Amino acid sequence: LLTMTEPRKRLNPKHRLFVRHYIRHRNASKAAVLAGYSEKTAGSIGNELLNKPEIEEAIEIAVAAQKAWWA
Fold first, then answer.
1. What is the pLDDT along the chain (71 residues), one digit of tens a residue?
2. How far is residue 13 from each of residues 16, 36, 70, measured CA to CA in Å?
3. CA 30, CA 52: separation in Å to the nearest integer?
């Protein structure tokens, strides 16, 4: 379902995984762990990633694509 064009190109593989898992679970800590980040730092990393403009944009695009698919 992630049909990102420009934002996806700017994300590294871990960031793409984070976006995919965040869309599914709506939990930044869980998404960070599932993307391969340490459980010890998942909370802070998840919050940090959510504040990155490229991650924010990728999440917005993915959510819009999901909504369009279900419409």
1. 444 445 556 899 999 999 999 999 999 999 999 999 999 999 999 999 999 999 999 999 999 988 888 87
2. 5, 10, 26
3. 17
Distances (CA, A) of 27 to 6, 24, 49: 24, 8, 12
Spatial CA neighbour of 28 closest among 56, 61, 62, 70: 56
pTM: 0.83
